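User: Show me sequence and structure for the first protein, then do the same for the second.

Assistant: Starting with the first protein.
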Amino acid sequence: MVAGATSIKMHGQYISVRAAVHNLSMLSAHADRDELMRWARGLTSKPKRTFIVHGEPGAADVLRHSLEEELGWDSLVPDHLQEVILS
């Protein structure tokens, strides 16, 4: 997607990419909660909404909770096939 793919295969279906995709090269592919929280604290403004879409469900929910409680971010660990309207 970073290279400009217009569709990706997900759960056996091709899905159109309709997002701005950015590569955060300063993060490890295996950043832990503390590293992600340190990075998030460094942002100058908080995002409208944050989606946690990687990792084990329990760990993803811990990160979601940390973002909400410590930084006041609106965060979500979406369910499989959950649709979200972005505005």
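Switching to the second protein now.
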Amino acid sequence: MPYKRADSPIWWASFTNATGKRDRRSTGTTSRKEAAALEGKWKTEEFNAQKWGKEKSVTLDELLLYYLKEKSEKKSQKDDRLHAKRLRAQLPKKPIDELEGQDIASYSAERKGQGVSNATINRELALLSAAINLYNRDHNRALPNPTTGRKLKEAPGRIRWITQAEATRLIEAAKAEEKAAQHLPDFLTVLLNTGMRSGEALALEWNRVDLKNNLIYLHETDQKNGKKSSIPINQQTRAALLHRASIKASHCPSSQWVFCKEDGSQIKTVRRSFATACRTAKIEDFRVHDTRHTVAAWLVQSGTPITEVMQLLRHSDIRVTMRYAHLSPDNLRTTVDTLSRLSHAQ
């Protein structure tokens, strides 16, 4: 019979599974009647699996827990857990093989009604799709994927960048905050001269900084695309890194982190100090990640080939980099001038 735990209003089921072991599962409901019906269903499935070799139904909880366990090393584990929580809370309590496209459509509509963006809904459904595909692969199953064809149209990605004059003003404002955040000027200098992501820079260790060859090395686990790569160090980045090295030598010689506190511990966020510097510099609607957009904009405007911008920013798809192509109208001006010359030659 269903039972409750002392710390939860949810009913739990306990029964012997097809392997002869005790199986305890949350029914996900506060209704004792619903819990008893679900427990009976699970018992029947286990009996059929043991007696007739019939495949068991897979619950949403089982599916998501399996995926999260198998993918526990993902850098996006925190986001995956949040998406899984949303799916569990709002998808129908059906076995995966009974979920239909209409269930997914209703889920999307409900989430949109809560003010959630299409992009976020797509990420939630992408997690469900990935979990189904992984489970099918690892268990030799053919569970249907109800998310197929249900991707929502997303708004164009945000592109916010600042001018070089604004960037100079921002770094000067950061220097004014050095007592509270002595790392911020160097941090911004590195981002604006390498195109690194904030998380990549904050997780940067000295053993991946090669000042002899002027390179920063990123391993598979360090970056979003899961590949190894290196980033060249220019004069400005080198000066910032040397300043960080002098601070390390003075305060925390044993610290592994490039961006660390005076006690040597890793700095994990710059959100508050960055926001303060932006206010001081009178720069609005600018986020730390927008430094990558800024690097892309500067390079494209200077005439750098889009493929080289892609390589520096380590985009896995050229279409992502092409979002910045419109920032280089001078290239097209040269093209139409060529057409003009051809017309006069006729």
